[in-house]
Amino acid sequence: MDKENKSDLVFGLDIGTRTVVGVVGYKKDKDFEIIAMEMADHDSRAMVDGQIHDIAEVANVVGLVKMRLEAKIGQELKEVAIAAAGRSLRTYSIRVEHELDARVITKKHVRMLEIDGVTIAEDKLKVELEADDLEYFCVAHTVVNYYLDGYVIANLEGQKGKKIAAEVIATFLPKSVVDSLYAVVNKKGLSVTTLTLEPIAAINVAIPEKLRLLNLCLLDIGAGTSDIAITKDGSITAYGMIPVAGDEITEQIVHNYLVDFQTAEKIKIDCSNEEKITFADILGTIITVKKDEVVSVFESTLSEIVSKVAAKIVELNGGKAPNAIFCVGGGGQVVGLIGKLAKELGLPEERVALRSSNLIENIKYKSEYIDGTNMVTPIGICITAIQQNGYNFIEVKLNGETIRLLNFRRLRVLDAGIVKEFNHENLIGRKGKDLRFILNDKENKIKGEIGVQAEIILNGKMTDLEAFIKEDDNIIIKPAIKGKNAEVLISEFCKQHNINLENKSVHANNQIVDINYSIQDGDNIYIEPHNQENKKNKNIIEKNFTKSNDNVIIILNDKKVELPNTKEQSIFVDLFNYIDVDTTNKKGKLDMKLNGNKVMLTEQIKDGDIAEIKWIEEL
Fold first, then answer.
1. CA-based angle 124:385:399, to the nearest 5?
2. Is 473 helix (H, G, I), strand (E, B) or coil?
3. How many Å apart are CA 421 and CA 585, to the nearest integer?
4. Pairing of the two strands 216-221 and 324-328
């Protein structure tokens, strides 16, 4: 491989529930030439149903695959193309139109048309979720059809007309799914060049455009999710996902034979190749069973999975079965799945077929070849990355480092900050915590220090987090600084307020303390002459300041009461929930006090308060 090709390498990574697969190659003419392939299994269930549960464990497997690939190709890999499983997928079909002033339609016109379609879809999602701050991320979009002056057209670029339109399918995933993928690859020194959806990546190689006139289904059955894409009339028309796949079968084997998950996974795989299977259970007993016996163990589970998959396919395909189904992913190789799926959909069995990587067109292998249906998606990730080639990303500089951002909506400084792990803690300079305490029955408060807000400079000018950004912008973010929490020693506070401590005892929460005791939030302090009995009575709260929650502890009618910590701070009227006072049957005058003073019903209740509510007979 020459130096020119080395600089154009594409690294695609399929981070699956059970396996991580990596492919490295480059585009040469119409072909994609693969120079290295690697795969490794997770040692534990660090991923479930396509969701990363243990970032560090998944990152270790990614690092292993990356290291092996680097050893094969003789250079460091710094960028990666990835795909997300369709867990919690939300899909919207949008038609968008633009009037044109220009004589010739350019690539920029087409790009803005598609981005507007995605923006409209995003607005619909916000309305549906009743949320302005969207916790979903657009991971991919596809165009079903382009239109020029009302007529369907294959390619708008270079055409002339007055009105262009597009029917766009936009797909959204929860930000948590996307963020965890980024966190994994970032841990191994990789930056993301392209993010797409797994069924999009798979369909880009398993069902080429020349076959999309047919009503076909791409089914990617992994360990945790089954992802689906539908083609018809030359376009991809729908995406979907259900969170059931091969792991459900493995779990059935675990419970039936009392084996660990890894052993059960091997038993499942061996059913495709062996007539008899030998394994050890958790007690160390060596067991040999026939393949047919194992199949009968998980048959009901397999039937349930097939039923759910078939129902989703029919739903996405407008209420009917497609003409044929291509299956990829390791889960598709489970014994009996193909036949059951064909029967469930009323298709001839030959119309439901495994699509292996050796059947992909325009792929050349310049390395050791790994066969299998689970190689289709990672190859598709590479091909998709080449097709998009920066299309759905913009580059900006943040604190001197170039970063890429998905460009499916108007991006703000905040979007760039989040990618580099800026968050509410280092973007917003929060005030330090106030210190509240009672000294000789008088409430005192010392304010925490005011925080320093983040300093944000965009292209040399001061701005804020909501400023819009574009390609090649230069952003500088100086992190916010949190203000210091208020703190004071008893001796310092008394010096500031001219309180004489000579020949006096200091008690904090019924314990004698030194005058250099550091006052804690909620403390009840008494300063009294020596030899005078300490006021250890109903007016002092005995409490533990290492309590496990932020509940408010007060004294109400001589008894300790703990008020639950809620978003709304408790007010005095809430205390009637904790006493037996019949306000409908007056017995005189209702006397209400807070810390010895008269109180309004709306006054806020704080940790350490002393409250009284009682009837006083009127003369």
1. 80
2. coil
3. 60
4. parallel
What's the helix, strand, coil split of the chain in %, to 5? 30, 35, 40
CA distance 171 to 121: 9
CA distance 158 to 156: 6
Is 205 exposed, middle or buried, given 0-12, 13-18 or 19+ CB atoms closer than 10 A? Answer: buried
Report residue 451 as tokens: 């925080």
Domain with CATH 3.10.20.30 in the chain: 549-619
Per CATH, the number for 90-388 is 3.30.420.40
Split at pLDDT 50, 70, 90, the class of 305 is: very high
Highest mean pLDDT, choosing among 123-127, 269-273, 278-282, 480-484: 278-282
Q: What length is written for the chain?
A: 619
CATH code of the region 549-619: 3.10.20.30
**Which residue is associated with the tokens 């036949």?**
339
**Residue 592: which pLDDT band, with cuts at 50, 70 and 90?**
confident
| Cβ-Cβ contacts under 8 Å for 100 (sequence gap 6 or more) | 109, 161, 162, 163, 164
CA pair distance 245, 239, nearest whole angstrom: 17
Asked whether 84 and 239 are in contact (CB, 8 A), the reply is no
Q: In the numeric block, which tokens belong to residue 300? A: 């009901």
Nearest to 524 by CA among 508, 539, 548, 544: 508
Confidence at 421, pLDDT banded by 50, 70, 90: low
* Distance, CA of 602 to CA of 234 (rounded, Å): 66
Cα-based angle 456, 460, 461 (whole degrees, multiple of 5): 60
Q: Fold for domain 488-540?
A: Ubiquitin-like (UB roll) (3.10.20)
Nearest-angstrom CA–CA distance, 46 and 184 = 12
- The residue type of 126 is K
Rounded-to-integer distance, Cα 473 and Cα 335, Å: 54
**Is residue 80 helix, strand or coil?**
strand
Residue range(s) in the chain whose domain bears CATH number 3.30.420.40: 90-388
Q: Provide the token pair at 41.
A: 């299994």
pTM confidence score: 0.58
Beta-bridged to residue 192, according to DSSP, are 80
